[in-house]
Automatic annotation (TrEMBL):
Pfam families: Glyco_hydro_1 (PF00232). This is Myrosinase 1-like. InterPro entries: GH, GH_1_N_CS, Glyco_hydro_1. GO terms for biological process: carbohydrate metabolic process. GO terms for molecular function: beta-glucosidase activity. It comes from the Eukaryota. Belongs to the glycosyl hydrolase 1 family. Homodimer. It comes from Pieris macdunnoughi. PANTHER family: GLYCOSYL HYDROLASE, LP05116P.
């Protein structure tokens, strides 16, 4: 009976769902097929090959525009409950605006959605995974408040075309990543660097854009389609490096929740500690108001509560300490840490797949509990978690360990901390175009041969491992490293 108890503890709750994710620019290729217009990533990679590790681009990527049936086959072999992919805005709306809808774009996503459903796999769709139509960047991109209404137009088209079959929508993937790394640091598309301001303007515009899409779904689509709409935020977990710096670690947690407080908190608006600190720093810099733009009371009410679940992506953790005078702070993975003069490091004992991707499984559980404490006992869906190596290892033991150890923490969060987690998503189904790392970072459960014109896909050991977890709906912890 002891054995039974142990096994029961390792079971995922009934109804818990497993998936895997990709994103349009990272897998589709076919960048200029038919009437598709360029996205900011097409423009950025074509104009700045030197900013990409292997000078590559997503022109072909995994060629999933052509090989989508193969991808569905892989998802089916894994036994996925759902497949998370994103729609390329410029493929569906080449003008950026809804005055013209591409027939080929419609056909492609209809085929993919129908193919998934025919194979018993639920489609989970992200509207914005960073590939803005270049035509809208020419309007100023996410620093232009008008983008919120352009995004609502796009969402209207997508909900209208696919909402009869798509029941889980994510408006945005990781606003923190594109607001900070793109619009503040200028390191990724569109390559616009507006230090200390671009990220905050982007944050406000994106919060409003999300809320507009959510409220549109409520008024126009919810009664007939009965789906769920949310977004997914990326979180690192932060711990103080030295005793006495808990307050700084908490400030970093709140900075990363900049894109959550307006939506999920009871009060709405920016996280108070972050808002206060940025206002103080702005005042010291001689400004009469904060660089973090205020919301009007109407905007606060408009954004607050616009969710049906909390989507989150977790990969890694950091230690926080006050920077030494003159210390150069890195912009990655969170350029905003320089705002507060905080240095982010990793503990040497945390196993590194890539320099930035160090594995600290307990951070995942602590993050889930922290989010529950901040925002209440709401539904959490893990929309990304995964591990990369810089070599295309086929017997990928490190990735298997990463998935097992992180899934173990999810189970602890569910069983011990009573966090209501209903879904887990592996990033990624297949190796793909890893932004400025090009094809040098391998995240796939399935290997892709990028030298092969047919982009041959071969499941790794981790794919077999994940399939076994899904099939048994439980975790075998006999190999666990026991965090
Ligand atoms: C995510 N970090 O980005 C994105 O959603 C994916 O498109 C991407 O391929 C994947 O994770 C792997 O990088 C991240 O700093 C960006 O911890 C930054 C971090 C994590 C994920």
């Amino acid at each position: 009976s002891l054995l039974v108890a142990a096994c029961v503890g390792r079971k995922f709750p009934p109804g818990f769902k497993f998936g895997a994710a990709t994103a349009s620019y990272q897998v589709e290729g076919a960048w200029n097929v038919s009437d598709k217009s360029p996205s900011i990533w097409d423009t950025f990679t074509h104009d700045n090959p030197d900013l990409i590790a292997d000078k590559s681009n997503g022109d072909v990527a995994c060629d999933s525009y052509r090989l989508w049936e193969t991808d569905i086959g892989l998802a089916k072999d894994l036994g996925l409950d759902f497949y998370r992919f994103s729609i390329s805005w410029p493929r569906l709306l080449p003008n950026g605006h809804s005055n013209y809808v591409s027939e080929d774009g419609k056909r492609y996503y209809n085929n993919l959605i129908n193919g998934l459903i025919e194979n018993g796999i639920e489609p989970v769709v992200t509207l914005y995974h960073w590939d803005l139509p270049q035509k809208l960047q020419e309007f100023g991109g996410w620093t232009n408040p008008d983008l919120a209404s352009s995004f609502e137009e796009y969402a209207d088209v997508a909900f209208g075309l696919f909402g009869d079959r798509v029941k889980t929508w994510l408006t945005f993937n990781e606003p923190v990543s594109f607001c900070e790394i793109s619009y503040e640091a200028g390191k990724t598309a569109p390559g616009v660097a507006l230090p200390g301001i671009g990220n905050y303007i982007c944050a406000k515009v994106v919060m409003l854009a999300h809320a507009r899409a959510y409220r549109l779904y409520d008024t126009k689509f919810r009664a007939k389609y009965r789906g769920k709409v949310g977004l997914t935020n990326q979180h690192l977990w932060f711990e103080p490096k030295n005793s006495g710096e808990e307050e700084n670690a908490e400030l970093m947690r709140n900075l990363m929740a900049l894109y959550s407080y307006p939506i999920y908190s009871k009060t709405g608006g920016w996280p108070p500690s972050v808002e206060k600190r940025i206002a103080e720093i702005s005042a010291k810099q001689g400004y009469s108001r904060s660089r973090l733009p205020e919301f009007t009371p109407e905007e606060i009410e408009f954004i607050k509560g616009t969710y049906d679940f909390y989507g989150l992506n977790y990969y890694t953790s950091r230690l926080v300490e006050t920077a030494k005078p003159g210390e150069k702070l890195t912009w990655f993975p969170l350029s905003g840490s320089s705002e507060f003069g905080l240095a982010l490091t990793a503990d040497p004992s945390w196993k590194a797949g890539l320099a930035w991707l160090v594995s600290y499984p307990p951070g995942f559980r602590r993050l889930l509990l922290w989010l529950k404490q901040q925002f209440g006992d709401i539904e959490f869906k893990i929309m990304e978690n995964g591990y990369a190596t810089s070599e295309p290892v086929m017997y990928d033991e490190e990735r298997v360990n990463y998935y097992r150890d992180h899934l173990e923490q999810v189970l602890l969060a569910i069983n011990e901390d009573k966090v209501f987690v209903t879904a887990y998503t592996a990033w990624s189904l297949i190796d793909n175009y890893e932004w400025t790392s090009g094809y040098t970072s391998r995240f796939g459960l399935v290997n892709v041969d990028f030298n092969d014109p047919n982009r041959k896909r071969t499941p790794r050991a981790s794919a077999h491992y994940y399939a076994a977890v899904i099939k048994s709906h439980s975790l075998d912890l006999s190999q666990s490293r026991g965090y």
